[in-house]
Amino acid sequence: MRRRTLLLRRALIGLLCLLPVAAAVGALLLGAEGVGRTVTERAPTGAHAQGADPLSAQTVAPGSAATAHRAPRPRIVSRSLWLDATARHVQPPPRYDDKVVAVFVHHTDSPNGYACADAPSIIRHLYAGQTGARQWDDIGYNFLVDRCGTIYEGRAGGVERAVTGAHTQGFNHRTAGIAAIGTFTTGAPVPRAMTDAIAALAAWKLGLAGVDPRGSVTLVSSNRLARYEAGTAALLPALAGHTDGFRTTCPGAALTIRLPAIRETAARLQGRT
Length: 273
Prior knowledge:
Elements: H1 2-23, E1 27-29, E2 38-40, H2 54-57, H3 65-68, E3 76-77, E4 102-107, H4 119-131, E5 143-145, E6 151-153, E7 175-180, H5 192-207, E8 216-220, E9 233-237, E10 239-241, H6 242-245, H7 253-256, H8 259-269
Parallel strand pairs: 3-6, 4-7, 4-10, 5-7
Antiparallel strand pairs: 1-2, 5-6, 8-9
Helix pairs in contact: 5-8
């Protein structure tokens, strides 16, 4: 019996030694402009592990700091509106983190002069490009916002949940990616309806974790190609631009200059002074 117990113990130790290697193998796809390649990021463990239930992880006691600044959930159009059965890509199950503590704002680097009724077809085109030629597992952004302020569900997994996106290289964990449909380089007009919608969405998502959109959070880089080396703890804005986490011009100079005002609007929507 003692020999059998010893053999089982050795086998268990050997298995545990293999787990970090297996956990490190998972391709998390990147998002947006200038980062169109698949990279490997260290898979999350513990509360960040795939299959962890972020809904229960985000449950907080009534009257706590996290509930004091909850913002109302804005209207979000389901991905079923833009993703029909003929265009759907076979993909693995969604990955989850425990909560969302930061959002990254992007632009899609696509034309600006579209009719808002055409936004679903534009998103479908973006999805086809990312899951087709680029061979990503899904659209990278968690949400997309059109010029009329309509918010669309992007990446699958549930808008209420902390879905691990593929939008900001090195900083996809515990964040959400919000993409403004269009190109917002220097001089481009940024519709007020769009920035108001981004603010409302950020206020809601960050409010679930009690995060002030005007504040900063510490995120650990998971990829050496990010703006920060893998393993670096970086202090970043809770409502950040793509360029804060990766060396890119996204979300464009015209939208980047609007981020301070978006932060203030989001904070007001959370009832902060």
